[in-house]
C-alpha cells in the first residue's frame, strides 16, 4: 500500500508541482489550500495520512495554527508534520521550535532533499507505530496491571521512572518518583518492558542519538512518554551507558510530550554526570505541564 501524504499549500503552482513529484515517487497525495480545509479533509477521511506537509503562511488558518489543532487531537496528534517555508526566517524557526517542530523544507527545495526528509519522517512514524503495537502486546501478555491503588488529589496519577541498562541483568529500575511502596503493579517489570521498546527505534545498535516516543497503553488507560539516551563509558560492554527516562500518566497529548521532552533533555544531562539524582523537581514540572493548558 502506498504511503499517504496530506499536502497543504495555498499557491496552486507549488501545490501542483509538489503533488506531481510525490505521486511520481510512489506516494498517494490528497491536497488542501489552507489549514481549515485540511482539518475538514482529515475529519472526513476514514484513514489518517502517514504524513502532513504544510505551508506556513496561508489564509483562514495558517500552518502553525493547523499544527496546534492537530497536536491537540487525540486521533491525529501522532501524524508526522513537515513545514514548507519560503525562507528560514529566525522568528519562524524560533516559533516552530517552541511548538516542537524540527523539520522544515525551504522553498525552492531540491527534490532529493525533499524525498530524503519525507522518507526519514515516515520511517520514524513506522517505528513509533510498531512500538505502540508491540508494547500493547507485551503488557497484554504479561500479568502487569497499570492501575495504581493510591490516587493523587483529583485522581491524577503520574509516575516518573529512571532505568539503566546493566550488562548482566538487562534493564534495571534505578529510581522512581513518587517513592510509594503501595503501587498495585511492579514498577520494575513495567520499566523493563518499556525499555524493550528501544529496540524498535535503534534495533540492536547503540543509542547514538537521544530519542523519545509517545506510547499509547490504551488497554490500561495509560499513556507513556519514554526517552532514551546514553553516554560514553568504556567499562560497559557497548562502551556506552544506556538509560531510559519515562513518565506514566492517564493521558499525555502530543503537545505535552514536547514539553516533557525538553524536561527530560535537562534531566538527561544530570544523569550523565553520574551523581545523585533527585527526580522530584522534574516530576513537579511534568505535573504542572499536564495540569495546565498548553498555550
Compute the separation of the termini in Å: 37 Å
Strand residue content: 15-25%
Helix content: 40-55%
Radius of gyration: 20 Å
Please, how many helices? 9
User: Could you give the count of β-strands?
Assistant: 10
What's the main sheet like? 5 strands, parallel
What is the spatial order of strands in the main beta sheet? 2-1-3-4-5
Question: Unreliable runs, pLDDT <50, ≥5 residues?
Answer: 143-156
Average pLDDT, all residues: 81
H and E order: EHEHEHEHEHEEHHEEEHH
Give the overall form. Answer: elongated
Structural class call reads alpha/beta
Count of discrete domains: 2
Describe this entry's structure for a reader:
The chain has 295 residues and is of the alpha/beta class. It folds into 2 domains: 4-132, Rossmann fold (3-Layer(aba) Sandwich); 142-291. It is built from 9 helices and 10 strands. The chain has helices spanning 12-24, 35-44, 63-71, 90-99, 111-141, 187-196, 198-202, 254-272, 280-291; strands spanning 4-8, 28-32, 51-55, 81-85, 104-106, 159-166, 170-177, 211-217, 222-232, 240-249. The strands form 2 sheets. A 5-stranded parallel sheet has the order 2-1-3-4-5. The protein has a 5-stranded antiparallel sheet with strand order 7-6-10-9-8, with helices on both faces. Helix 8 runs antiparallel to helix 9 (280-291). It is elongated and about 60 Å long. The chain starts with a strand and ends with a helix.
Amino acid at each position: 500500500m502506498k504511503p499517504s501524504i496530506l499536502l497543504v499549500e495555498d499557491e496552486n503552482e507549488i501545490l501542483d508541482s509538489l503533488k506531481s513529484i510525490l505521486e511520481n515517487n510512489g506516494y498517494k497525495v490528497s491536497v488542501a489550500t489552507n489549514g481549515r480545509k485540511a482539518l475538514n479533509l482529515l475529519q472526513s477521511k476514514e484513514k489518517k495520512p502517514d504524513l502532513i506537509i504544510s505551508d506556513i503562511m496561508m489564509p483562514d488558518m495558517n500552518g502553525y495554527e493547523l499544527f496546534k489543532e492537530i497536536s491537540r487531537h487525540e486521533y491525529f496528534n501522532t501524524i508526522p508534520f513537515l513545514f514548507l517555508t519560503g525562507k528560514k526566517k529566525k522568528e519562524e524557526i524560533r516559533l516552530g521550535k517552541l511548538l516542537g517542530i524540527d523539520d522544515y523544507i525551504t522553498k525552492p527545495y531540491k527534490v532529493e532533499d525533499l524525498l530524503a526528509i519525507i522518507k526519514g519522517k515516515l520511517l520514524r512514524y513506522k517505528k513509533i507505530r510498531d512500538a505502540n503495537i508491540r508494547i500493547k502486546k507485551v503488557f497484554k501478555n504479561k500479568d502487569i496491571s497499570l492501575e495504581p491503588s493510591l490516587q493523587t488529589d483529583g485522581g491524577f496519577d503520574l509516575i516518573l521512572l529512571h532505568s539503566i541498562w546493566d550488562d548482566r541483568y538487562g534493564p534495571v529500575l534505578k529510581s522512581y518518583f513518587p517513592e510509594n511502596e503501595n503501587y498495585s503493579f511492579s514498577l520494575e517489570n513495567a520499566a523493563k518492558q518499556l525499555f524493550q521498546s528501544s529496540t524498535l527505534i535503534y534495533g540492536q545498535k547503540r543509542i547514538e542519538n537521544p530519542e523519545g516516543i509517545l506510547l499509547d497503553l490504551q488497554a490500561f488507560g495509560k499513556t507513556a512518554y519514554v526517552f532514551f539516551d546514553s553516554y560514553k563509558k568504556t567499562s560497559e560492554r557497548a562502551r556506552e551507558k544506556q538509560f531510559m527516562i519515562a513518565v506514566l500518566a492517564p493521558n499525555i497529548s502530543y503537545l505535552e510530550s514536547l514539553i516533557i521532552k525538553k524536561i527530560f533533555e535537562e534531566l538527561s544531562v544530570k544523569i550523565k554526570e553520574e551523581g545523585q539524582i533527585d527526580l522530584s523537581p522534574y516530576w513537579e514540572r511534568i505535573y504542572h505541564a499536564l495540569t495546565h493548558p498548553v498555550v
